[in-house]
Structures are given as C-alpha cells and as structure tokens.
Amino acid sequence: MIDAKSLLDRFLGPGGKGANQLGGLLKQAAGGRGSPTGAGTGLQGGIPAGFLGGAGAGGLIGLLLGGKKKSKGVGGVLSHGGAAALGALAYRAYQNWQQEQARGAPPADDSFLPESPAADGHPFALALVRAMIGAAKADGHIDAAEQQAIFAQVEQAGLDAEAKALVFDALSRPTDLDAIAASARTPEQAAELYLASRLAIDPDQPAERAYLDALAHRLKLPPGLPERLSAEAALATGG
Q: What pLDDT shows up at residue 80?
C-alpha cells in the first residue's frame, strides 16, 4: 500500500515541515482571518515565516515547475512549506470566504488533513499529488526530455513501486479533470484541490487560466471561493 503522507512530503520537498504539524498551523491561521480585502491574510500573517523558506527546493513539484513558471515565488510554498502550509492556506482562504459570504461556522481543523480519505476512500494526499501534476502539465510544455528527467528524479526519490507507478501514470496520461474533481469528498477538499492546482501554475498564461476555470466548474466551487483561494495563493507566493 502506498504511504500517501510520505509521497506527498517527497513531492512537496524534503524541507517541508510535514502534515503532522498541520493542526497547530490551522490554529495560527485562524487567528489572522477576517480581512475582506485579503490584506494581512497571506501565509506569513499567522504562520511562522520559516514555512515559506530555508528548506531547499528539492521536491518533485520543483522539478516539474523548474524553468517554466516565471512569476515570482510560484511553487515556492509547495517546495518549502509542504503539506502543512498547503492545508493552512486552504483553511484560511475557505474561512475568509465564509466570512465574506456570511456562511456558517468555520471548517473543522481536520477538514484539510491530507491523511483524510478522498471520495474514493484513498488518502486525500494522493488526490493532491495528481491535481498538482495535472496543473503543472496544463501549459502542455513538458517535452520528452523533461519527462525523462522527472522520471529519473522519481526513481531516485526512495519511493516504493506503487508510489512511483502513481506518479509515472499521472505524468504519462492526459489529465482527467473529471477524475480530479470527483476525488473531492467534501467542499473543503474541493477547495484544497483548487488551491494546490493554482499554486502549481502561472495564472497569467491563458491555457493555465482556462485550466483553472474548468477545474473550478467541475469542482462546483461556489461564487467567490476560487477568487479567494487564488488571492491567498498569490499572497503566499508573491505571484
């Protein structure tokens, strides 16, 4: 059986703090909520700055994005902050959107844990990996040489055979937006899938913007939430 947490950690980068610290980060993120304009709601507003840097961009997502994403900081939170930062970003963006829309109680602390089951019963971390790979391929510019370099990196990452097969399959096959969207078991998971995808692309590129719009539609994200998630991603990465 795939060690989903290990795969996500390897994918995001060896310097990530890990999903086991997500609960504490969520509590810190909750302390900075409530700005309707997004000011002060970036990752560093309530989460230690170390989660954005000082970790070395050694993750597989960094290889996917390398040389392709020109916007300042795009992908940085993925390679430096790990699953904890990703979950905390999604939590706060969702919470801010709820406040703007005057919708219900804040999400539970465990709503964005990658160990939680996805709609298919497998760990949600696997769905996040597939979503990020799909988004990184959205511009269609991963050529055969780049794909081989990624395959070689995966071979050296210490993953088990099942984990390697999952990554190779996601890289080799055409992206299935319907399958990515169907993996969301809850509205919170849908939001995090969108955020992970947004962090793995450059939204200024038309093809990638179209990909995000199509994903938001398939995820059935309510009005205003994609914009809130994108704003949080931009504040965290500077791009």
A: 52
**Backbone φ, ψ for residue 101 (5° rounding):** -95, 0
Beta-carbon contacts of 196 under 8 Å, excluding residues fewer than 6 positions away, are 78, 86, 90, 128, 131, 132, 135
Residue written as tokens 């939430």? 225
CB 237 within 8 Å of CB 199: yes
pTM score, whole prediction:
0.78
Q: Burial of 153 by CB count in 10 Å (0-12 exposed, 13-18 middle, 19+ buried)?
A: middle
Burial state string for 12-40 with b = 16 or more CB within 10 A and e = fewer than 16: bbebbbebebbeebbeebbebbeeeebee
Q: What is the maximum alpha-carbon separation in the chain?
A: 49
- What distance in Å separates the CA atoms of residue 96 and residue 21, rounded to the nearest whole number? 21
Phi and psi angles of residue 203, each rounded to the nearest 5 degrees, phi first: -70, -10
pLDDT one-digit tens code per residue, 79-104:
555 677 788 888 889 988 988 887 76
CA distances from 116 to 8, 19, 123, 230 (A): 13, 11, 6, 23
**Distance (Å, whole) CA 234 – CA 61:** 18
Domain coordinates of the chain in residue numbers?
4-237
